[in-house]
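Per reviewer request, we include the raw input and output of the structure prediction for the construct analysed in the revised manuscript.
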Amino acid sequence: MSAITTHILDTAAGRPAAGVTITLERAAAAGFTEIGRGVTDDDGRCKTLMGGAALETGTYRISFDTGAYFAARAIDAFYPRVQIEFQVREADQHYHVPILLNPFGFTTYRGS
């Protein structure tokens, strides 16, 4: 399992959000650099974002393609993309960044 994982629950539908494309980036001197990409499984989880890369301290950004997810369900949504930036201060820790999603809002927190 990746050191950075995510989980998406579609609170409007009352189920996991399967099929959401996710991109993981790390801040560098010239901006953010992509280090991984994945798609949520049937349980709304993505456990392979880092593709085996080692976790380093720094600022990361995880982007969820929520617009495509809702468009595939013929649902008008306000946010075409959700982006969350967070700090990794201890490279030996696991970082779980879940979101609770609906067409007009989202909530995130550091999970376990």
